[in-house]
Amino acid sequence: MTNSLRWKRILLKLSGEALMGSQAFGIDPAIVQRIAKEIADAVALGAQVGVVVGGGNIFRGVAVAAKGGNRVTGDHMGMLATIMNSLTLADALRRLKVNARVLSAVSVPSICETFSQRVADRYMEDGDVIVFAGGTGNPFFTTDSGAALRAAEMKCDAFLKGTQVDGVYSEDPKVNPNAERYDTLGYDEIITRNLKVMDTTAIALARDNSIPVIVFSIHSPGALVSVLQETGTYTVVGD
Ligand SMILES: Nc1ncnc2c1ncn2[C@@H]1O[C@H](COP(=O)(O)OP(=O)(O)OP(=O)(O)O)[C@@H](O)[C@H]1O
Ligand SMILES: O=c1ccn([C@@H]2O[C@H](COP(=O)(O)O)[C@@H](O)[C@H]2O)c(=O)[nH]1
Fold first, then answer.
1. For residue 57, which atom of ligand 1 is closest to its CA?
2. ipTM reported for the complex, 2 dp
3. At how many degrees (to 10) do helices 71-95 and 29-44 cross?
4. Which is deepest, 97, 139, 224, 226, by most CB within 10 Å?
C-alpha cells in the first residue's frame, strides 16, 4: 500500500480554527477525533506524519496587540495555545492506538518533550506521529512558518496545509465566492499576487527547500488520504 502514496513523509499543517467546529472559540473534541482518524488512516497506509496545529482557535498575538496588549506576550500566548491544541490531538491519536508524541519548540518539560531534529527524525522513522508544538518558538512568526521550517528540517516530501478551503483561489473564496480555484500554482505567484492563504515566510521556506505545498480542505471527510493518493480537490504549489 505504501507505494500508492504520492508523498510518504509529510508535514501536515492544520488550522487551529478548524478545531473549533461550529464554536466561536476553543476545541470541539468530536472534530479533533475526526481529524485524528484521518491521520491514523494515512499512517495505516505507510505515511510518516509530522503535524503542526495552529492556535487561532485560542489566541493570536496580533489580536492581543490590537486590543492594546503587548505583541510579544500575545505571541507567547499564541505559542502556548498551539501546545494545548497539540496535546489534545496527540491524545486523540493515542485513543486510536497511534503512537503520537508532542515535541515543542518552547520547553515545558513536565508536559511534553522539547523539539530536537535528531530525535524527531528517529520517531518518524519508527512510524510515530510527531505533533510539533510551539511554532518556531519565537514571536513575530506563525505556525505556517513553523510548519515549513519543520518540513525542511525533517526532509518531508510535501507540506500539506489542511485548511478551511479546498485550495488556493484568485482571492479569498470566503470573501468572493466567485474566485477562481487553481489546481497548480508557482510559489512566486502566491508571493507576487499576495494570495493570503499562507504567509510569505512559509512559502519562501518551502520554495527554497523545493518542498511542494498542497492546500486542501480538512473539512472534507477522507481528504488527507485522498490527497496522498492524488484524488480529490486541492492545489499543488511548486516551481
Ligand atoms: N487566495 C486565497 N486562497 C485560498 N484561501 C485564502 C486566500 N486568501 C485568503 N484565504 C483564507 O486563508 C485561510 C487559510 O488560513 P487558515 O485558516 O488555515 O489560517 P491559519 O492562520 O493558517 O490557521 P489558524 O486558524 O490556526 O490561525 C482560508 O480559510 C481562506 O479563507
Ligand atoms: O512561531 C510562532 C508561531 C505562532 N506564534 C503565535 O501563535 C499564534 C497562533 O499561531 P497561528 O499560526 O496564527 O495559528 C500566532 O498568531 C502567534 O501569535 C508565534 O508567535 N510564533
1. 25
2. 0.95
3. 60
4. 224
CA 223 to chain centre: 14
Provide CB contacts within 8 A for 3, sequence distance 6+: none
Q: Report d(CA 57, CA 211) in Å as an integer.
A: 27
Of the listed ligands, the closest to the CA of 12 is: 1
Checking if the pLDDT of 120 tops 60, the result is: yes
Average pLDDT of the residues of the chain: 96
Mean pLDDT of 194-209: 96
Pocket of ligand 2 (CB under 6 A): 16, 54-56, 60-61, 74-75, 78-79, 81-82, 135-136, 138-139, 141-144, 146
Residue whose CA is at the smallest distance from ligand 2 atom 7: 78
Q: Which fold has domain 7-169+201-220?
A: Carbamate kinase (3.40.1160)
